[in-house]
Each structure stands twice: as structure tokens, then as C-alpha cells.
Amino acid sequence: MLRWLVSVLSHSCFISKSDSMFYAVRKGRRTGVYRTWAECQEQVNKFPSASFKKFATEKDAWAFVRGAALGPEQQPEPAGDFAVVYTDGCCSGNGRNRARAGIGVYWGPGHPLNISERLPGRQTNQRAEIHAACKAIEQAKSQNIKKLIIYTDSKFTINGITSWVDNWKTNGWRTSSGGSVINKEDFERLDNLSKDIEIQWMHVPGHAGFRGNEEADRLAREGASKQTS
For residues 162-192, b (16+ Cβ closer than 10 Å) or e, as one string? Predict the structure, then answer.
């Protein structure tokens, strides 16, 4: 009985410690910070020159992903010849008749390409997130940027463009349950824009003190207050 109890307690302590860790993937199928080893392993297993590490805090994990031990108030450094941009979308009254959505694109302090615009068309938060990324890619191409890192707090946008869109196209823009993809036109636009440019999609937690994300959020909220063009 004593051995059994010691075994159970030891196992419980191990699980508790493991669950509190953060797994950072700097280079893999999809970069970012994950809460379980299984999620991390999916991104790095058999990926050439994968770069990943386990941390006790989320802050340290994100610093590793960004390539330097920077505080959250600082901007991540571009990786090699990649340009870095933050995008965000917002929508007040999401799902209601009087909803107002805006997009924000942040390239850096006082950067001439920083954008704050009202979202045209259907006013939803998801559309705003997608169109903010579209705007950033359009701007990058206009500046002849060939490699781009997009930071966004929208896992929906990242998963859509990196994982779901190919299946949607194969299935005639139907979801796995057989329904129509609600944001078909938006993802078609994002998919087309993503051609002829190398993009690394990076998820950053929203409202967590990361300056670039906070600035993109501010621009998006300002955009939502503007009139539609």
C-alpha cells in the first residue's frame, strides 16, 4: 500500500510540473508557444533543422521564439532578411446589426505603412483579422518584400491559411461537417495574396503587453470608429 501511494503521489507531482511548462518552437511547421509536448512535437518532428526548447514561463518561451531575450514592451527583431509586421482586427457589437469592424497593421513606431481602416463589407471580427493580414501582404508586395513574418493573435486566421484552406479547396469549399465555409471569399483573397511571397505566421497572445500587438489593436479600434469608404 505504501509503495502504491508513493507511486501515485510521484506521478501526480510529475504531471503537475509537466503541465506548467511552455514549449517554444522557433523553427518548425508552425512557430509559436505550446502548452504540451505533443503539440510541440507535431511542429518539429522530422522538420529539417527544427529549433525548439522547453521553458518554465510563457514570457521566456516567447523570447526564444522571437530569437532574442526581449521584454514584452520591445519589438521582435527581424529574422535574417524577413520583414516583421503585426496585424489585428476588431469588431464592436460583433454579430449585431450595428457592428463596426476595423483593421490595424503595425510596422513600427511612426512607420509610414502603419494602417488604421474601417473594414468594408460584412462587419465581423474574423473578417477583420483576415483582412488585416491581407492588407499587410499587399503592402509588403508593394515594397518588393519577399519574406515576411506576420504576428497576429488570431489562431483562426493562422489555422485557416496554414492548415484548413487546402482541404476546403479540395472539398469544394466545404467544411469537414459538409457546411459551406463562411469566410470563403476572405480566405480565397488571403490564399491568393500569399502566393509569390514567403510568409511565416506567428501567433502572439493578445493583450499580454507585447507592444506590436497592442499597437495593431489600437489601430484596429481606431479603424472601427471610422466611416466606411
Answer: eebbeebeeeeeeeeeeeebebeebbebbbe
203: left (phi over 0), alpha (psi -120 to 50) or beta: beta
pLDDT of the residue at 40: 86
Fill in the amino acid letter for 189: R
217 is catalytic: yes
Is residue 111 annotated as part of the catalytic site, yes or no? no
Instruction: Determine whether 188 is an active site residue.
Output: no
89 labelled catalytic: yes
Residue 153 annotated among the catalytic residues of the structure: yes
For the cut 80, the answer to whether the pLDDT of residue 95 exceeds it is no
CA separation for the pair 217, 151 (Å, rounded) = 12
Out of 28, 32, 89, 102, pick the active-site residue. 89
Mean pLDDT along residues 31-38? 86
Contacts of 43 (CB under 8 A, 6+ apart): 25, 28, 29, 30, 31, 32, 34, 50, 52
Q: Provide the whole-model pTM.
A: 0.67
Active-site residue flag, 138:
no
The residue whose grid cell reads 509610414 is 112
Q: DSSP state, 180?
A: B
Question: What is the reported pLDDT for 47?
Answer: 75
Please identify which of the residues 32, 88, 117, 131 carries the catalytic annotation. Answer: 88
3-state DSSP call for residue 225? coil
Residue with cell 476595423: 102
Question: 60: how many CB neighbours lie within 10 A of its CB?
Answer: 16
